[in-house]
Every structure is written in structure tokens, then in C-alpha cells.
Write a structure and sequence with these properties.
Elements (H helix, E strand, L loop, with lengths): L7 E5 L5 H10 L3 E5 L3 H10 L3 E2 L3 H5 L4 E4 L4 H8 L5 H4 L5 E4 L5 H13 L3 E4 L2 E2 L1 H7 L2 E6 L2 H11 L3 E8 L3 H29 L4 H8 L7 H11 L9 H18 L4 H15 L10 H6 L2
Parallel strand pairs: 1-2, 1-4, 2-3, 4-5, 5-6, 8-9
Antiparallel strand pairs: 7-8
Helix pairs in contact: 9-11, 9-12, 9-13, 12-13
Length: about 290
């Protein structure tokens, strides 16, 4: 860990991202208590990790210096934070709540204000890198909050990150994640069109990838999804349903700030077609399936 000091931490939400992230905290020497809405997942996590499970977010947060969460969306986040069983009820003054959920900037600002009223710290800290990044401890973490609170949480975040950056005040981490998702949408669509073109032109797709990935067309998506796109393999990775949820956040924010997102809106509609074809849980690289089946 960055400062060499183990912390007492709680982790709320043990999905495909949260479970390995919490595991890395244990590996780095932190004392970890976990909570999951489905208690069976928490029990299974404790069977392979040296931590304990709690019955409620409040119980998990008791005694924790840092409480981290990675849940589904705004209302899921509110559910684990507020109320008698919520994390804020169990946290002591001076403790810090870190939210890794990809959520709205509005809920980040709301929780920041609620935390301050209780003498707590808050950092919105969405991540990029997908399930593989979580498993390998190579996530990019983009944070919003005041600098002192960020500095208190930062050493813990390095347990599963390759980059941790404070982007500004509360909500700025979520806004940065929106930029990330906007860029990914365009890149994946471009890659889908290029690879479909290569296949229809009679080119060796893998050889094309080997060549163009050494030039200006290179991207994370090309390196990590190009070969599976050629094979029409989509039963893994970042689900289309999740991407559409994230893009919905982008559109709502763009409506407020006046940003134009014409390409993103088009790609979102392509993802809607993937959902209609039964691909709600397919990886976002499944955009190529629309072109292959035309």
C-alpha cells in the first residue's frame, strides 16, 4: 500500500467488479468487512478471502476508516448509504466513503453534502478497465472530492489501481467517467465497422489487427476485443445493458451543459438493437454483430 499502513475498511457490493477489488484490499493487508445484498455472495467471498461478512451496510461500516461501494446505479447507492441500516449510520466522524459506482454527478454531489453534514468525507471514484482490470488490479480511478479527503482514501485505492487521479470537486469523477464512456462508444463502433469491412474484403482479420494495432488506429478496445469480435464471441465483459445505463447518464448531463453527442446517440441506438436481438448481457464489442448479420 502506498503509505505502508493497513486500514480497517468496508466494501459494499460484490459483483464482477467489487468482489475482486475487495480481494485486492485483503491481499494488500487491509482489514476488510464486506456486504452484499445477496448474502450468499458475501459468504462465498469470505470462503476464499481473509475478511468477514456483515448483514447490513451499517454493520460493515462500523469501525471502518474507509468505506467503499460498487453497486448498480443511483438508487442502489442511496439504498446502501441512507437509513438506519445504511453505511452513513455506521460510520464514525472522520471516516471516508468512496463510491466506485458509475452513477450521476448529481448523486455524487448529494452524497457529498450528506456526508459533510454528518462529519464524514466523500469521494466519487468511478473506475475504468472492466472486469479484467478489477481482477488484475489495474483499474483507472477518476475521483471527485476535496483534496484532504482524497488524500486520506488514495492509499487504499492503489490496492487495485494503475492510476488514481483527483479531477476536482464532488461529481467531477463521475463527469470524467462520462467522457470515458462517450469515447469508448465511438471507438467500438469504428472498430466494428473496420473489422466487418476487413472480413467482407477477404482479408485475414487477425493479420489486419496485428498490423494496424502498431499504428495510429491502436486502442485498448482493439488490443482486448479485436480477436473476439472477429470470432463473434460476446459472452463476457462489460454488458450492453450497463453501457446503455452509462450513456443515459451522459445524455442527461449533456442536456444540462449543452454538449452535443450525435455519434454517441447513434451508437446508443445500435446498442438498443443489440438488446432487441437478445444481447442485453453481451459485451459492448457486440456492435459488430449488427454488421455481420445484415
Amino acid at each position: 500500500m502506498a503509505d505502508g499502513q493497513p486500514k480497517t475498511v468496508a466494501f459494499l457490493g460484490l459483483g464482477v467488479m467489487g468482489a475482486p477489488m475487495a480481494g485486492h484490499l485483503v491481499k494488500k493487508g487491509h482489514r476488510v468487512t464486506v456486504y452484499n445484498r445477496n448474502p450468499d455472495k458475501a459468504k462465498k467471498w469470505t470462503e476464499v478471502n481473509a475478511g468477514r461478512a456483515a448483514a447490513t451496510p451499517s454493520e460493515a461500516a462500523q469501525g471502518a476508516e474507509i468505506v467503499l461501494a460498487c453497486v448498480g446505479a443511483d438508487n442502489d447507492l442511496r439504498e446502501v448509504v441512507y437509513g438506519d441500516n445504511g453505511a452513513f449510520a455506521g460510520m464514525a466522524k472522520g471516516a471516508v466513503f468512496v463510491d466506485h459506482t458509475t452513477a450521476s454527478a448529481d448523486v455524487a454531489r448529494e452524497l457529498d453534502a450528506a456526508a459533510k453534514a454528518k462529519g464524514l468525507g466523500f469521494v466519487d471514484a468511478p473506475v475504468s478497465g472492466g472486469q479484467a482490470g478489477a481482477v488484475n488490479g489495474q483499474l483507472t480511478v477518476m475521483c471527485g472530492g476535496d483534496e484532504a479527503t482524497f488524500k486520506a482514501a488514495e492509499p487504499v485505492l492503489w490496492s487495485y489501481a494503475k492510476a488514481v487521479t483527483l479531477m476536482g470537486s464532488a461529481g467531477m469523477g463521475q463527469l470524467t467517467k462520462m467522457v470515458n464512456q462517450i469515447c469508448i462508444a465511438g471507438v467500438v463502433q469504428g472498430l466494428a465497422e473496420g473489422l466487418n469491412f476487413a472480413q467482407r474484403a477477404g482479408l485475414d482479420g487477425e493479420k489486419v489487427l496485428a498490423v494496424i494495432s502498431k499504428g495510429a488506429a491502436q486502442s485498448w478496445q482493439m488490443e482486448n476485443r479485436g480477436k473476439t469480435m472477429l470470432k463473434s464471441e460476446f459472452e463476457f465483459g462489460f454488458a450492453v445493458d450497463w453501457m446503455r445505463k452509462d450513456l443515459g447518464l451522459c445524455f442527461a448531463e449533456a442536456k444540462r451543459n449543452g454538449a452535443l453527442l450525435p455519434l454517441t446517440a447513434l451508437v446508443d441506438q445500435f446498442y438498443a438493437h443489440v438488446q432487441q436481438r437478445g444481447g442485453r448481457r453481451w459485451d459492448t464489442s457486440s456492435l459488430i454483430q449488427l454488421l455481420q448479420k445484415m
